Automatic annotation (TrEMBL), chain A:
<dbReference type="InterPro" id="IPR017596">
    <property type="entry name" value="PdhA/BkdA"/>
</dbReference>
<keyword id="KW-0670">Pyruvate</keyword>
<keyword id="KW-0560">Oxidoreductase</keyword>
<keyword id="KW-0786">Thiamine pyrophosphate</keyword>
<protein>
    <submittedName>
        <fullName>Pyruvate dehydrogenase E1 component, alpha subunit</fullName>
    </submittedName>
</protein>
<dbReference type="InterPro" id="IPR001017">
    <property type="entry name" value="DH_E1"/>
</dbReference>
<dbReference type="InterPro" id="IPR029061">
    <property type="entry name" value="THDP-binding"/>
</dbReference>
<dbReference type="Pfam" id="PF00676">
    <property type="entry name" value="E1_dh"/>
</dbReference>
<dbReference type="InterPro" id="IPR050771">
    <property type="entry name" value="Alpha-ketoacid_DH_E1_comp"/>
</dbReference>
UniProtKB/TrEMBL annotation, chain B:
<keyword id="KW-0670">Pyruvate</keyword>
<dbReference type="InterPro" id="IPR029061">
    <property type="entry name" value="THDP-binding"/>
</dbReference>
<dbReference type="Pfam" id="PF02780">
    <property type="entry name" value="Transketolase_C"/>
</dbReference>
<dbReference type="InterPro" id="IPR033248">
    <property type="entry name" value="Transketolase_C"/>
</dbReference>
<protein>
    <submittedName>
        <fullName>Pyruvate dehydrogenase E1 component, beta subunit</fullName>
    </submittedName>
</protein>
<feature type="domain" description="Transketolase-like pyrimidine-binding">
    <location>
        <begin position="9"/>
        <end position="184"/>
    </location>
</feature>
<keyword id="KW-0560">Oxidoreductase</keyword>
<dbReference type="Pfam" id="PF02779">
    <property type="entry name" value="Transket_pyr"/>
</dbReference>
<dbReference type="InterPro" id="IPR005475">
    <property type="entry name" value="Transketolase-like_Pyr-bd"/>
</dbReference>
Length: 363, 330
């Protein structure tokens, strides 16, 4: 292996800065973020967990059709948004609502898709967050295109392109990595490996040593990071974003994490995994770990902790209120956005529905 | 005052000229695809454009159609007007998911906030003796998908104006280029008269029956009309130009004026665009019709090998046979 190809290799084990017991890891190749940054992250993590659990509860109350929760993966979600600037783009999957919210999207608008009011409930340009992608990995070539356009204009934009372990088996994952590498597009491909694609375990997705190794074939440097270690995620993703911004091209980051809940509320995880496996990951919880670390360092005060909880409650209340508010959908909207201006045929069809409604009203 | 000039151009040259003029007028127009740079495309449609505008405006990509279309989506999201080339009709299928799930739907799913001004150019259909997977008539797949515009020029002039219109459109366009017409020539007028997407045109006036065609079938219709004229029958020819949006008004006015119609497409008939045209005409013009609307289409078979392709292509005789069958005895 040449020195040049060696630079593509990820670490032998996932990068970790804080161990599951909340202790600093010695001799890490990445410097730990400062305490103030980590304290801010803890606040975001607490809100993220609250959002996940609130959304999950709202499904049971019938306010959301379904919710793919990132419970347990909140450190990945928070870090993905926290390392980006306002000018940067985020391409989330359906499980990355919390990352989209981290980039500034209103959580009520972010959940419009799952509430059923419309497909994408937010303006993607407002916070530079692409619509949630539900077809797997299809958003990754878009991320490359956004990055390439920015690069052609000389803008310093970086694009964070997210997918899961299952998504790495899709053709678009490979095409996107290859295109990004060939064009040296400033994209950070961020894979949350939560061990399951609905019910199918990682072993059925890949025989590669790790998902981060998949970059080697494309000339994309890979890195592995403990996905439940907030400090390591900020360090590794932050470094990747800096490199991309500095013109060093794309990178592939794999975070090792775990989906603590079922795929969605419609799923039954007991059919394919043991409770004991899930229980083992409780010990690795990202929030407990960071809280222990910051408490031991004397950074986390009772007052700050209370403020975080209050903020999380505020966001949860906002989400609840927003999702409990019924918006009367306007059927004219079905025809308004298919094209910039409706075709004659769409105008006819819109009139058919308007006529049906007027007759219903007359009854 | 604008000076009007005429130049004799092949359809391939007219398309090249349209790309060149669009790139000159709008710096956000970028071209990419397979072999479109130094080679100028396998049909030379992008000939000389990398040399004229540089690598950043006209470039080769890795050989992956989903990646090409997906990257175009991202570039269109971010201020560019990408024009991508699929090398052949059947080679566009790896991009199908991107086209159906994203290109067609982005404006709608974002409530009009993200439009995708992009063009997917597809050299399409047969008649050139192409081998397997090089001659598909794929228009029905695209036309069936709301959110896409689908156009197919039949003349060099329309190739120029429709491609300019497609590039300027705020919405994505699947631009079907009939391969067998790439080398057909005519005088093209500059500056061009505006032919908007969504407007059909009467190619030949006639009073006895209406032939409805688009793209590669238009010359067949015109030839059939010329032969019929010698036999004393006056056939009108409508060139759709745009499959989506569909110009019901022009098509129906034409059919009502003659009371008889034959639809001609190279693509297979079953569940194809020809079936849609017959349905639309029948629904709207029934009381004006003196005979059922007939179709002359490709057979419902995979595209034949070169030595058998003439059995698949609608020819003048089949068209005239269909015309003969339009209940003239009444």
């Amino acid at each position: 292996m040449t020195p040049d190809s060696r630079r593509l290799l990820p670490s032998a084990t996932p990068v970790s800065l804080i161990d599951p017991e909340g202790r600093a890891v010695e001799n890490s190749p990445y410097p730990a973020p400062d305490d103030a940054t980590l304290l801010r992250s803890l606040g975001k993590l607490i809100t993220a967990r609250r959002l996940n659990d609130q959304a999950y509860a709202l499904v049971r109350q019938g306010r959301l059709a379904v919710y793919p929760s990132s419970h347990g993966q909140e450190a990945c979600q928070v870090a993905a948004a926290q390392v980006l600037d306002a000018q940067d783009w985020l391409f989330p999957t359906y499980r990355d609502t919390v990352a989209a919210v981290g980039k500034g999207v209103d959580p009520v608008e972010a959940l419009s898709l799952l509430k059923g009011d419309w497909h994408c409930g937010y303006d993607p340009y407002e916070h530079r967050v692409a619509p949630h992608a539900t077809p797997l990995a299809t958003q990754l070539p878009h991320a490359v295109g956004v990055a390439h356009a920015a690069r052609l204009r000389g803008e310093p934009t970086v694009v964070m392109a997210m997918c899961g372990d299952g998504g790495t088996s899709e053709g678009d994952f490979h095409e996107a990595l290859n295109f990004a590498a060939v064009f040296q597009a400033p994209v950070v491909f961020f894979v949350q490996n939560n061990e399951y694609a609905i019910s199918v375990p990682l072993a059925r997705q890949t025989a590669a040593p790790s998902l981060a190794h998949k970059g080697i074939g494309y000339g994309v440097p890979g890195e592995r990071v403990d996905g439940n270690d907030m400090a390591a995620l900020l360090a590794v993703l932050g470094t990747a974003v800096d490199r991309a911004r500095n013109g060093e091209g794309p990178q592939l980051i794999e975070a090792h994490t775990y989906r603590m809940q079922a795929h969605t509320n419609a799923d039954d995880a007991t059919r394919y995994r043991d409770d004991a496996d899930v229980a083992a990951w409780v010990h690795r919880d990202p929030i407990t770990r960071l809280r222990t670390y910051l408490t031991a360092r004397g950074v986390l005060t009772d007052q700050a902790g209370a403020a975080f909880t209050a903020e999380a409650e505020k966001v949860a209340t906002h989400l609840r209120d927003g999702l409990n508010r019924d918006i009367e959908p306007n059927p004219e909207d079905l025809f308004a956005y298919v094209y910039a201006s409706p075709t004659p045929q769409l105008r006819e069809q819109s009139a058919v529905i308007a006529d049906e409604l007027s007759r219903e009203g007359a009854r | 005052m604008t000076t009007v000039a005429h130049e004799k151009l092949s359809m391939a040259q007219a398309l090249n000229r349209a790309l060149r003029d669009a790139m000159t007028d709008d710096p956000s127009v970028v071209l990419f695809g397979e072999d479109i740079g130094a080679l100028g495309g396998v049909f030379r449609i992008t000939d000389g454009l990398t040399a004229a505008f540089g690598e950043s405006r006209c470039f080769d990509t890795p050989l992956a159609e989903s990646g090409i279309v997906g990257m175009a989506v991202g570039m269109a999201m971010n201020g560019m007007r990408p024009v991508v080339e699929m090398q052949f009709d059947a080679f566009a299928y790896p991009a199908f998911e991107q086209i159906i799930s994203h290109v067609a739907k982005m404006r709608n799913r974002t409530r009009g906030r993200v439009g995708l001004p992009m063009v997917i150019r597809v050299p399409y259909a047969g008649g050139i003796g192409g081998v397997e997977h090089h001659c598909d008539s794929s228009e029905a797949y695209y036309a069936h998908t709301p959110g896409l515009q689908v156009v197919a020029p039949a003349t060099p002039s329309d190739a120029y104006t429709l491609l300019r219109a497609a590039i300027e459109s705020p919405d994505p366009v699947v631009f079907l280029e009939p391969k067998k017409l790439y080398w057909s020539k005519e005088e093209v007028e500059f500056p061009s008269r505006a032919a908007g997407i969504g407007t059909a045109v009467i190619r030949r006036e006639g009073t006895d029956a209406t032939l409805i065609a688009y793209g590669p079938s238009v010359p067949v219709a015109l030839e059939a009309a010329a032969v019929a004229a010698q036999e004393g029958r006056s056939l009108q020819v409508v060139d759709l130009r745009s499959i989506v949006p569909f110009d019901d008004a022009t098509v129906c006015a034409a059919v009502r004026s003659t009371g008889r119609a034959v639809v001609i497409t190279e693509s297979s008939g079953f569940a194809g665009v020809s079936a849609e045209i017959v349905a639309r005409v029948t629904e709207r013009c029934f009381t004006s019709l003196a005979a059922p609307v007939r179709r002359v289409t490709g057979m419902d078979i995979p595209y034949p090998p070169p030595k058998l392709e003439h059995f698949q292509l609608p020819g003048v005789d089949r068209v005239l046979d269909a015309v003969d069958d339009l209940s003239w005895e009444q």
